[in-house]
Amino acid sequence: MTAGTALRVLVLLGAVAAWLIGVLHGATGLVILIMAAAVLGVADVAFTAGQGLAVPRLVESDHIRATFGRVQSFSQVGHAAGPLILAGLLSVVALPMAWLAGAVMYLGSLFAQRGIRLSRSALPEPIRSSAWAQARAGFTHLRTTPVLWNITLANVLTNAGAMAANTTMPVLAIRDLGLSPTAFAMIGGVGAVSGILGAAVASPLVQRLGLRRTRLLVSAGMAAGVALVASTLGNVLPGPPEAWLGVQAVLAAGGTSIAMVAGSDLPARHSPPEQLGTLMGAQRSMVLGVMPITSMAVGILGSMAGLGPALIVWACLTVLSAVPCLRLP
């Protein structure tokens, strides 16, 4: 987790330095930005895997899901505030200065992480093998443990559906339905609030309904959101389209947050301590790795074949996310 944060700081400071010395333009600048984005993506996987690994080592197994829900709620607050802070900064400074502000925020996170203290008893004996062997062992353990494999597949498909929505919705709302950028931003704000609330209620919801029914409810809600979007496009629903797109945003953002928290206690319950890190790294690689792939694929499909096929893919992903959930406890 600390390494991922430190890497983010270095990448952003490096991008600012490249701008200051005048190389952040043309083909060279494009290559630098692509490399920075790739490294930031790796750092994000490292951070989220480390964060997920720290929680089960700080609290008892019965409290993992509730604790992770609170962590995710605060994280969602940051995700909601980030675009607003960026927009404010860009109104008064150049983009590289916003990167510098981001580096300062990451430094704040780095110092906050120094307050996390794991007891010696919480730390397993290190595995004496290569990084490649550990990664392979993590994926093998994930694939051969049915409950972990099913929750991971469900989360992969849920995230893929969310990215299909994020790729499709701006074009659909602004170009096809004629919403203003301000109205669309307000819909995004409603979705952000839903994400915060979803993370907060996820653990009590699982405790009340059980994991399988909670995840099926999430899939049903996100599929209903796609149906609302399609009905809005077809002028089937009464009232302004902003209202129905707002409902879709609530279902999508809230459902995604609930999905990420609902099974967060399973890795610690079904893995020996020495394999927990490699297992969670394998999970995060799949769950986060599918996001840019889906976004690019849906974007290419939409530009080549139109919005209809992109909507169909989005709908299929949300419906398919329910299939692995049927095999959850």
TrEMBL record:
It is a multi-pass membrane protein. Residues 147-329 form the Major facilitator superfamily (MFS) profile domain. It is found in: Cell membrane. The chain crosses the membrane at residues 6-24, 84-111, 147-165, 185-205, 217-237. The keyword Nucleus does not apply. Keywords: Cell membrane, Membrane, Transmembrane, Transmembrane helix. The keyword Membrane applies. This is Major facilitator superfamily (MFS) profile domain-containing protein. The lineage of its organism: Bacteria, Bacillati, Actinomycetota, Actinomycetes, Propionibacteriales.
